[in-house]
Amino acid sequence: MKLTTIAVLGGGPGGLYAARLLKLSHPDAEVTVYEQGEADKTFGFGVGLASRTQRNLREADEASLTAIVDAAHPHEMSMRVGDDAVRLAHGELLGIGRATLLTVLQRFAQEAGVVMRFGERRSAADLDADLIVAADGISSATRSEHEAEFGPSVVFGDGLYLWAGTDYQLPAAVFTPVTTEYGTFVAHAYPYAEDRSTFLIETDEETWKRAGFDVTTEQTPNTENDEVSLTFLEEAFRESLDGHHLIGNRTKWTRFRTVRCANWHAGNIVLLGDSAHTAHYSIGSGTKLAMEDAIALDRALLAADDLESALTAYEEERRPAVHYLQTIAERSMAWWDDFPERTSIPVAQLLIAYVTRAGKVSLERFAATAPQVVPAGLAAYAGVTVDEVPGPAEVTEWVLAQPLSARSLPTRTAPAELRDAPGTVEISTQVRPWSAEATALVEGLSAAETYWLVGADDREAVLDRLDLAERIRRSTPAVVVAEVPAALRDVAAAALVSERVDLVAIGS
Ligand SMILES: Cc1cc2nc3c(=O)[nH]c(=O)nc-3n(C[C@H](O)[C@H](O)[C@H](O)COP(=O)(O)OP(=O)(O)OC[C@H]3O[C@@H](n4cnc5c(N)ncnc54)[C@H](O)[C@@H]3O)c2cc1C
C-alpha cells in the first residue's frame, strides 16, 4: 500500500529499525523519527542478542545485521556459586552496548533516507502522518494517552533489579549469587566491549528493605545513581568484579514491568516493541522482539491494500510469538526470584535447571550442545561418576530410571500404589504457580508424607504443575509427585534433574 508520511515516535532499537525498513520499502514516503534524547546519550549498558535474532535480522536486512554483529562481542556463559563454577562454550551469544547498537541503527536509518529529529519529545496528537509508529518504550505515553483503545495491563515483578556496568571485560557471561548480612543478591553479568560489561544485580524485596535500599531508592532522583547501593554491591561482588568498579547510568533499584495490551493499533497509530509488550530481561529478548515487530510491520504494510488490514495482519502475525516469549519470560522471572533457594544444588546441575527452567530447551538438546556441563550435572543428580552418564539420546530414560534413595524407591517413576497410600494427599489444581492462590495453597498444606499433583495434560499446565511442585517441595519435607503425560517425558526428566519434583507419574 502507498504511504506518503510516516512518523516514528522513539529512536530506540524498535523505532530506528522500523524507520529504516519502512523507508526502504516506501522510498517516496517521508519517514521521520522523533527521539526525545540526544543522538549520543542513552541509558543502559550492554544488551544480549541471541542467535535466532540474528537469523531473522539477516533475512530482513543483511547490511545492518552485519554491522551489528561486527560491533558486538561474542562471549561464553558461566555460573558460579561460591568456589564452584562451570563454564559453557556457546558460540552464538552476543553482547552489544545499547549506545553502540543505537549508533549503528541511526546510521542505517539515515543512510536509507530517514529524517532524524533528536531532542524532540512529541505526542501522537502533535503528529500529522499517514502512519504513526509508537515505539516510545516501556513507559509509552502514547499507550497511556490512548488507554481505552489499547487496553494495557502492567504487572510489576516481586523482585528488584539494578542495571549497572563495570569498566572491564568479563572473561564470560556469569550468573552468580552473593550472600550478605541482609540476604542474597544475584548478578547477571556479561561483557559487551573491550572495557565494559553489563552487571545487572537483583534481589528480593525483604533483602532490599533490610539493606535500607528502599530508603536509598526513594532518595535517589531518576536522573542520578543510587551511590549507596552501588558502593555496597561493589564490595559484595568484589571477587566477580576482580577489583573493578561498578558504574551507574541513572542506576537505581526498579521492579520489572511486564506490559501487555489488548490491542496494538488504533486508527493510524501502531504500538511496536516495549510500548506494546515487554518480556523479563533474563531471557534477553526485548530488543529482538522490538526489531522483529518492525520486520512484521514492514511486511504487513507491503502486503495489504489498506492501513487497517495491514495493522491487523501485523498484530495477528506478532501476537503468538510475543505471547510465547512472554510465557517463557514469566517462568524465567519466577525462577530467578527464587534463585537464592537453589544455591545448595551443585552448580553443573544448577546450570541444567537454569537452561531448562522455562521448558524451552529440552534436556536432550542441552545434553547434545553442552557435553562439558551436562554429564557433570547428571552425575551430581544421580550420585554417580561422569563415566556412568549415557549419551544425549538416552538421558531422558536414564534420569527417570535413577533410584530415589531417600524413599528406597528403585526409579523416579512413582509406583501406582503410592497414590492411594494412607500418607498421600492428592492436589488437583490449575492455579498459576506464583499466584496468591498458590501461596495460600502451599501455606495451608497439612503434614502429608506425599503430595501427588494432578491436572491438565497440555504443556503449559504441566510446566505450571512442576513449578508448583517445586514450591511445595521447598516448603515441606514431603515427597512430591507430579503427573506428566508420556509425550512430555523429557520435561519430566528436566524437572527431576532440576530438583523441582521428587517423582513423576508418567501417564499415557
Ligand atoms: C535491565 C534491562 C536489561 C535488558 N537486557 C536486555 C538484553 O540483554 N537483551 C535484550 O534484547 N533486551 C534487553 N532489555 C530490553 C530492551 O532494552 C528493550 O526491550 C528494548 O530497548 C525495546 O526497544 P524499543 O525500541 O521498543 O524501546 P526503547 O529502547 O525503550 O526506546 C524507546 C525510545 O523512545 C524515546 N521516547 C519515549 N517517549 C518519547 C516521546 N514521547 N517522544 C520522543 N521520543 C520518545 C526514548 O527516549 C527511547 O529512546 C533489557 C531491559 C532492561 C530494563
UniProtKB/TrEMBL annotation:
<keyword id="KW-0520">NAD</keyword>
<dbReference type="InterPro" id="IPR036188">
    <property type="entry name" value="FAD/NAD-bd_sf"/>
</dbReference>
<dbReference type="GO" id="GO:0016491">
    <property type="term" value="F:oxidoreductase activity"/>
</dbReference>
<feature type="domain" description="FAD-binding">
    <location>
        <begin position="109"/>
        <end position="323"/>
    </location>
</feature>
<keyword id="KW-0560">Oxidoreductase</keyword>
<dbReference type="InterPro" id="IPR050631">
    <property type="entry name" value="PheA/TfdB_FAD_monoxygenase"/>
</dbReference>
<dbReference type="Pfam" id="PF01494">
    <property type="entry name" value="FAD_binding_3"/>
</dbReference>
<protein>
    <submittedName>
        <fullName>Oxidoreductase</fullName>
    </submittedName>
</protein>
<dbReference type="GO" id="GO:0071949">
    <property type="term" value="F:FAD binding"/>
</dbReference>
<dbReference type="InterPro" id="IPR002938">
    <property type="entry name" value="FAD-bd"/>
</dbReference>
